[in-house]
Amino acid sequence: MIAIARTILYDPRWPWHAAAHLGATVKAANQYLRCQPRQYRHLFDAARP
User: Fold this and answer.
1) Residue 26 · residue 43 · CB < 8 Å
2) In the chain, how many domains are there?
């Protein structure tokens, strides 16, 4: 847990990078869609109501 915490402190978007590397999508609320990384255009899956 400490290793993951240190990684996230170093790079707060590490979970997004890991998901993109593994080919997964991230369910995100609409307000977060504007901060999607440019190199991962299809990373976010818009939250459904």
Assistant:
1) yes
2) 1
